[in-house]
Amino acid sequence: MVDELPEHVQFAKEVVENAKKRRPTPKEWWEGKTKEEQGKLVSFWLILASIFMWFMGYNAVSSNLSVYTTKGLNLSAGIASIISGVSMGVSAIAFIPVGYLAAKIGRKKSIIIGYGLAVISFVLICFAIMQGQEAGLKSVLFALFYVIAGFGLIIANVNTFPMVTELSTAETVGAYTGYYYVATMSAQAITPFIAGLVMDYIQQKYLFLYSAICIVIAIVLMAFVKHGDSIILAKGRKLTKEEKRQIRLDSMDSAD
Predict the structure, then answer these.
(1) Which site from 57, 80, 140, 208 is most exposed, i.e. has the minimal number of CB atoms within 10 Å?
(2) Alpha-carbon torsion (219, 175, 95, 67), positive or negative
(3) How many folded domains does the chain comprise?
(4) Chain centroid to CA 110
């Protein structure tokens, strides 16, 4: 009787045999998917691209906030900290109500609204705040517009991650979560450099125009997404306790 091979040798043989098997080409892999699977994959890639452009736009501003307020608006660094703190406070309050908004109108529409608020705010900061204005007026206008943009940030962030996980399965949820963070982190690594070039070689205020353009691209990409949206409540139907609990959990997960 022939002795069985040791377990580690059997494993090595299986690895070699699997490596010899012909793998499908990208075209064959794609054609092997159903129409629904193809649609979900396209939506997933569009969502990731939209998230990438969104973070390119918003983080260009957040990473250069103190530079712009001190050098562009000639305000003190303390005022910049206060404005940032107020924006974060509004964000903390808005997380859960924003989750309810998505249940009413859907995640996709909610995200586009959030993007739109940021675009309007950044365009107003770029063109409505002038160098000759009184320091107090500049501070108030900038704080108002930036807080509105921060509210847009929350609307977008609370809904983008659930859209990604909605398109995943039990086997792919970990990979999809990783792709989400690759999109966000890579944008946050790239955009401060580009934003710095805009501020150094064009003009400080055009930082916000650059950000607005990035977010407009994010809106266009999100407009083509067909899958991953939440189920909108029927007219007149109220959320159950379990649905409210799930919305709160999803909102807290997005906050992380």
Answers:
(1) 140
(2) negative
(3) 1
(4) 12
pLDDT of residue 97: 74
Residue type, 131: Q
The DSSP code sequence of 67-96 is HIIIIIS---HHHHHHHHHHHHHHHHHHHH
C-alpha span between 29 and 194 (Å, rounded): 37
> Is position 200 within any domain?
yes
Identify the pLDDT of residue 177.
93
The backbone region for 239, taken as left when phi is positive above 0, alpha when psi lies in -120 to 50, beta otherwise, is beta
Q: Tell me, what CATH number does 133's domain have?
A: 1.20.1250.20
The list of the chain residues with pLDDT below 50 reads 1-2
* 100 domain-assigned: yes
Please state, in angstroms and rounded to a whole number, the distance separating the CA atoms of residues 68 and 73.
7
For residue 208, tell me if it sits in a domain.
yes
Q: What is the pLDDT of residue 1?
A: 45
**Residue-number span of the structural domain to which 213 is assigned:** 41-255
